[in-house]
Each structure stands twice: as structure tokens, then as C-alpha cells.
């Protein structure tokens, strides 16, 4: 019960902070964004992103690589969420560097899937921040591992215009 109160309080604090025009430091925003994945709350994850934000993944695997927009990311997250036994993918940053409005983060992810398999990946993320929102995410990770774990689901999740180059 204490967790619900904490989350409600955090949501109210975030809303008040935005209304007051207080801008979070880029590194803090990126860390909060990665932590939000552990909640499994797609709306909280998307709230960190600007309306015109893009997410780019290195590689050339259909359904795994390329550039998607915020709406497509939301659709993808909603479709893969039921695959996770806990309803969330935990992403844990272990090193972050910030310069200006750019943040680089190294992170590890983990999730136990409902079918008993485990998903674990290593990432390098590059975030571009504009005021209090992320406008661009570039993800460098093991897309072959993603394909092995999420193969058919990824094909079903991939919607929208996917290109091969970062923003």
C-alpha cells in the first residue's frame, strides 16, 4: 500500500514540476526514463518523451532495427508487456555520462518471460534532451538476442514507418 502512495506522490510532484517550469537535469531525466521501464507502466514511460520523439535501434533486422516514433513505441510496449512474467522489463543503468543536452548510458536489462525463458541484454543508449523531455533515443544492443527471444512477437509488434537511419 505504501508503494501506491509513493507513486501517486511522485506523479503529482512531476506534474507540479512541469507546471512550474522546472527542468530536470538531462542525466536525471534519462535515469528516470530507464527506471520507468521497471514499472511496466507504458504511459509513464511515454511521458518522458516529447511528442515528436524517435527511437532508433542499430542493425538491419526487420522488426528489431530502425527508427520508430513515440506512438509506435507505445504500441510495441503495450504488445510485449504481456510476455513478461512480472509485466515489465527491468533496465538498470550502471554508467552514465552527460554533456549539455546529451546523455550516454550503459545499462543491463532483465525479464523473465511467461513461457519460462529469460531475456537479458546489454545496452548503450544515447539520449537527446530538449528541456524536460527526451526527443531522441539511440539504442545499441544485441538485436540477434532480441530476435531469438521475441522473433514472432517482434514481427507482430512492428508497425508504422521503420527506417534504417537514426534521426
What would you note in describing this structure?
- Strands 2-1-6-5-4-3 form a six-stranded mixed beta sheet.
- The protein has 167 residues and is α+β, with helices and mostly antiparallel strands.
- The chain has helices at residues 2-19, 26-36, 42-47, 70-80, 143-157, and strands at 49-57, 66-69, 90-99, 102-112, 118-130, 133-141.
- The relative contact order is 0.20.
User: How many β strands by DSSP?
Assistant: 6
Strand content: 25-35%
Describe the largest sheet.
6 strands, mixed
Across the major sheet, the strand order is 2-1-6-5-4-3
DSSP helical segment count: 5
Q: What percentage of residues falls in helices of 4 or more residues? A: 25-40%
Structural class: alpha+beta
**Radius of gyration, in angstroms, nearest whole number:** 16 Å
Based on Cα principal axes, name the global outline. globular
Order of helices and strands: HHHEEHEEEEH
